[in-house]
Design a protein that fits this description.
The chain is α/β, with parallel strands linked by helices. It contains 15 helices and eight strands.
Length: 291
């Protein structure tokens, strides 16, 4: 799915990070979401490889990247630690400054990366997310129904792990078909790769830890940095048919967090890199190459 790309494993912030690298031009870091891996970019990355050097890792806890032991605060799975992984990986590849695009959980890592390491990020794109703090602050019935998995996955170990592990394939298929207008957007090859990784007990636990961190230590970090407003250019892409855009005024929320926001709705649901890859690639190319 990534012809012409090379596969590498590099040390992150105390954990090994699996990634693919390919293309030519300025560096562009692509971060995936739940319950996926770097494979979510397999329709987009080749289209951008003529314009950018693409780096697409598996986040810690996901795919073939490391899954470190956790603690009571779930700090090893905080977005701060996930962002630190990417800083170290990009530095080892020779990139001190780079572009970042993140979908879903990857968008939250990308946002934290830009907050913690503003010297490293030239431009930022987030796909189909609202700021985490705002989503928890303004939870309502509509959000709870659409994003029930947030509240399920954050439950204490090992309640969600045990239930999902009973039939991980059913859970994974439901996750895609419930949030994607056309389930065929996720190719059989991509789904098989997601399932290979997701059905491992260590992955189930690590991905739940991601959500436990989001409901705890990540909120502490977000509260502490609420006064920070990003000055870099930020692109917001969202699914016009997706649930998140029905619950939140996404452009307004991101204008509260960044001074220079560009936004565009795309004709898809939540999984934009797979539902509308041509549109995503075109938007990212125009945004990151603009002077």
């Amino acid at each position: 799915m990534f012809d012409g790309f090379t596969t590498q494993t590099l040390p992150g912030d105390g954990v090994d990070i699996h990634l693919v690298v390919g293309g030519q031009g300025p560096p562009l870091l692509l971060l995936h979401g739940y319950p996926q891996t770097h494979v979510c970019w397999h329709k987009v990355a080749p289209q951008l490889a003529n314009s950018f050097t693409i780096v697409a890792p598996d986040l810690r806890g996901y795919g073939d990247s490391g899954k470190p032991p956790t603690d009571a605060a779930h700090e090893p799975y905080s977005k701060r630690r996930m962002a630190a992984d990417q800083i170290r990986v990009m530095s080892q590849l020779g990139f001190k400054r780079f572009f970042v695009a993140g979908h879903d959980r990857g968008g939250r890592v990308a946002h934290r990366l830009a907050l913690d390491h503003p010297h490293a990020v030239d431009k930022l794109a987030v796909l189909d997310i609202a700021p985490t703090l705002e989503m928890f602050r303004h939870t309502n019935e509509q959000f709870a129904r659409a994003y029930f998995h947030w509240f399920f996955l954050m439950q204490p170990f090992d309640f969600p792990e045990r239930l999902i592990g009973n039939n991980a394939e059913y859970y994974l298929r439901t996750a895609f078909y419930a949030r994607t207008p056309s389930g065929s957007a996720v190719t059989p090859e991509a789904f098989a790769e997601y399932l290979r990784c997701f059905q491992k007990p260590e992955t189930l636990h690590a991905t739940c830890e991601d959500y436990r961190a989001a409901a705890g230590i990540d909120l502490e970090h977000d509260e502490a940095d609420l006064h920070k407003r990003l000055e870099l250019p930020l692109l917001l892409l969202y699914g016009a048919k997706g649930r998140i855009a029905q619950v939140y005024d996404l452009p307004s929320l991101w204008r509260e967090r960044a001074a220079n926001v560009h936004s565009q709705g795309l004709p898809g649901g939540h999984f934009l890199p797979e539902e509308t890859p041509d549109e995503v690639a075109d938007c990212l190319r125009k945004f990151f190459t603009a002077g």
